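quick one if you have a minute, typing this from the bus. below you get a single protein, a line of residues and a line of whole numbers that encode the local backbone shape. could you go over both lines and see whether the tokens make sense for that sequence. anything you notice is useful, everything is just below.
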Amino acid sequence: MEQRTFEISGTPSQVQEKLRERSNVSQPQGHWHKSGQLEDNIFREQNPRLIYIDDPRRTNDTYEFASNEVRTSKYTLITFLPKSLFIQFHRVAYLYFLAIAVLNQLPPLAVFGRTVSLFPLLFVLSVTAVKDGYEDWRRHRSDRKENNREALVLQSVCFELRKWKNIRAGEVVKICADETIPCDIVLLGTSDHSGIAYVQTMNLDGESNLKTRYARQETASVVVDGGSISGLVRCEQPNRNIYEFTANMELRGHKFPLSQSNIILRGCQLKNTDWVIGVVVYTGQETKAMLNSAASPAKRSKLEGYMNRETLWLSIFLLVMCSIVSLGMGLWLERHKKQLDTLPYYRKRYYTEGRKYGKRYKYYGIAMETFFSFLSSIIVFQIMIPISLYITMELVRLGQSYFMIGDKHMYDSSTNSRFQCRSLNINEDLGQIRYIFSDKTGTLTQNKMEFRRASVFGKNHGASLLAAEYLQDGNIAEVPRNRWKLKSEIGIDLELMELLHKDLNGEERIAAHEFFLTLAACNTVIPILTESPRCALLGGDLQEDNEAIDFQGESPDEQALVAAASAYGYTLCERTSGHIVVDVNGEKLRFDVLGLHEFDSVRKRMSVVIRFPDNSVKVLVKGADTSVFSVLAEGTERDDYIKMVTQGHLTQYSSLGLRTLVVAARNLNDAELEEWQCRYEEASTSLTDRSTKVRQTAALLECNLRLLGATGIEDKLQDGVPEAIESLRQAGIKVWVLTGDKQETAISIGISCKLLTADMHQIIINGNSEDECRNLLSEARSKYCLRSSRCSEQNLKWKKNTAKDYLEVPDNSKSVNRTPRNSGEEEGMASASLALIIDGNSLVYILEKDLESELFDLATSCRVVLCCRVAPLQKAGIVDLIKSRTDDITLAIGDGANDVSMIQMADVGVGICGQEGRQAVMASDFAMGQFRFLKRLLLVHGHWNYQRIGYLVLYNFYRNAVFVFMLFWFILCTAFSTTSALTDWSSVFYSVIYTSVPTIVAGILDKDLSHLTLLQYPKLYGAGHRQESYNLHLFWITMLDTLWQSLVLFYIPLFAYRESSIDIWSLGSLWTIAVVILVNIHLAMDIQRWVIVTHAAVWGSIIITYGCMVVLDSIPMFPNYWTIYHLAKSPTYWLTVLLIIILALLPRFLAKAVYQILWPSDIQIVREAEALRKRSNLEPNPHQDSS
């Protein structure tokens, strides 16, 4: 019975609630006539799904089950337009566009041409609709291809091809080798007489290793004999849990359980099996694959949240300006109400020749005109709210992701995996990470297990290992030659090997025999054999070559243990649902498997009930030390001594960084076996709380065990992990490790990867009650004089502000005197040399009770935190502990399904493409092949992305505001009339064409420092922590600079042409070209890295602006006809533009120069050092040979 669950007792429920809120996925409906929602893991026995085998009519008569047609598309031809518009107008930005366009259609408010005002909205809607339509067309095409695939369905007495979409629940289907499963089916039989089938679940969970599925022997034998099956399957309602299936089958008066090992899910592929036959239980949208097709929870960057704050300020500016204009107009009208017929901007009558001559103008009175002026001002100043910024940011993030994906330095050749960007909303958060929460196994380590140590009957083995070839060469006469050739070589302990092959019947020999028999039998590993062995000439004699064998399993730990048992002569060579065959030193022994209790996170052990060839029955158990030692039998002094010695060996193995397991066994008598079988059959056929009942049944077996020994498996660190962690710590990032391993193992790995250092004071919290945990936390806080949460937050802010004081730069670079700031000795010791080590049992009490704040105070005062023996939801609880109490950005990185909750809880989730499948990758925002790539991702790409996006936002605020302020000054000089000197098209093109491309190019390509420099000086990453590229202070400085530039931009042309006779459209043409040149040169002043594309974008946009103005001024129907041609002939025009650029940018240039000379930032200092290095490399060496 396979039980896979991630439910952990004692974990705070609020963590689960937060994860459910973030996933934002609706629950599936069971069948169409039921309205209630179904829970994922609980099945109610009074409402089962009844599947009548090979009787689809009867099956679907009671309930209208879903058809097998799948649909992933969102639209149809009829619903596309209304649904697309409905979805798009969920965005506030589009509603703002719509409101502006509607206001402009009203006659009193028609500031722009009615067609022109619709252009921005129609452009955005059309582009988005075309993109969505194309994507949905591809989904339709994929759905048609999927639904029209064919499978063999049983019709009367033979199988006939039928399209997938026409398959119904209750029908019997036949799948051949390498075919894809069309729906969720319960196995009835396979081409293997034992009922075994191998499937690949790559399309479902991303795992490439083969999984084993079984047909019940009751049905497999009938299928093999060619008989027909008619029975009833009672199963749970559809849910998205792919690791659990609860059902019963009733066949010929007998009732037996079905589990996850008896079902094959839609999307899996049949491998190494000729054919399988099964009955359809879930179809179409109700299959587990379709129920799991929801996207990862949406996340939003912190910088975008700050940007909304500044957008609110811009909205206030907009309302203030509109209020000034409307109030000014009201006062103007009141003052000149008797002169309205003759004033240039307001009049009551038409005086132009024509049919309207002498008629009254559209004058609505002072009050309404004031109100209309307010609305008209909103239309004129609409781009003050930078709606286009959101679209620009999406394009920039897309370009940044393209270069991150293409970074060859983040390509992992061992797994052939490239960097993946699965979320485009949080690129800039990578440059502000404060906390990293990392899994250990498979994330910091390789998750490629190697058997290193064994403690058997109180004796330690494995200190000196020999290569397997040494034994194969016949150097030891007592050891027979192993006929099985493993995929990889395993070191052998000579003393242990001799013990296994001595002809002894002592306790030590029996314990060693049962020890390796447990390693070979207590697992779910499947042996894969190759073709018949070949003959080879060895030592002058013709000998049979070793038969190659490989082991497929879902756990690398199990594979390593089974391979180790094979190396010592205990080779698992056959497995079926009812028996296994183990080759013990050349003799094949068959063992009947009476029951299997798989490992789960509550029991933390696994057991198998085996009937030996002599008819004796034993329980073989392996598991975590704490869980196995707690169920050992009370023994003799000899047993207690072995237990004590074994515990010492376990501590020794853990200190070496090895993963440990304890092995035990127990004999079963007939009465105990019968009692267990009755309870097991009852629990395994239960449709309610099956996992709990099976767990309780396992407790009948897993007690009074006899200790056999322990194992130590090495999981080596990945390449570059210590260097990456050291660099991340230098960058001011705290790395916390959350692992399920023993405390000693975690500490050893922490030392190996340079997370823990010799000078650190280790604070260990191992509490077994709430009071004990409270006392341990209080003692640690008082011993190291740690402060409360409020003081800790102030201390954190102080550290953020002073992080830049520790940057080292080359001697030949420009330096600046800094006064170092030192805190007290106690604070310095607490922040620099403390390491907190806490276990999962303590976290149960701390996270559930009111001790969270005390843990937070202690943990944030430590440089390193190691959490051992933690459950998956406890990992998420630790992440939430930091997220809910600080504004710091968190990152979680892991490689397995147990890391999914942590990854989804963190601000940034990173998945590792490792040995444990791709569940973590599919739930992550970014994915990579190795932990060491995290260094480059954060220190290089994170730094670049944050610098670019931060500047991009401020520049867009400036670009739009300078244009709006210029219009505002003009309106103040035209009697508050909202009259525009610019053409409608120039106003629309300003953000769309004239200035958009340089912004996007700079946001994608600009680099303040090279990647080598950023990696060389990790402390430069602190610029993101200090928010140097984007903060409220920079926003107000930018607004002041914008105000100055807009005044220069408006009044210089006004004074230059005050004595001339040019019209308003000529001035508008001058202002248009001047503002475009100004904002582009402003951008050019800040660009750090010039490439061909950057030059083309910046200077090309100015050329394009001139080209557009030439075209618009050449159209006779426009009021600005031929203005550019007259202006361009005058030297005053060009001198005015030049004077505007100089005067507008001069204060900014001087301020930057003074600031960089007197108060240079770390980045500026290193940039100068980098420039000096480049210059020295370019200069020829006078001592170098000219040849």
About this structure: The longest strand covers residues 445-456. The mean pLDDT is 80.
